[in-house]
Amino acid sequence: MSPALKRSLRYIAILGVVAYLVANQDFQNIVRRFFDLRSIKAEASALDKDYQSMRQERQRIQKDDVYLEKLARRDLKMAKPGELDFRFQPPKPASEEKSK
Predict the structure, then answer these.
(1) How far is the C-alpha of 42 from the C-alpha of 53, rounded, in Å?
(2) Measured CA distances, 39 to 13, 29, 32, 42, 87 (Å)
(3) What is the domain count for the chain?
(4) 82 located within any domain
């Protein structure tokens, strides 16, 4: 058997196997499930990082009264009894004042 014929038969065999795998529904399902699993693992990892971050935040809120007060003032717009809350407009950029 000549080397060219062997090479041709090898290519035909490889092409046949690839065609069988691509056309095979079970193989397609396995590949699809593999990629689904990868994306789910990535999502689980991201959620785990979020969970750890939230857990640290909760511990800090429970232990640090100054931090809790800062969050209450910033996020909930709270003030101590009798305390006045002043709100100022941020200064306008110089370029905006010149155009008027």
Answers:
(1) 17
(2) 33, 15, 11, 5, 46
(3) 1
(4) no
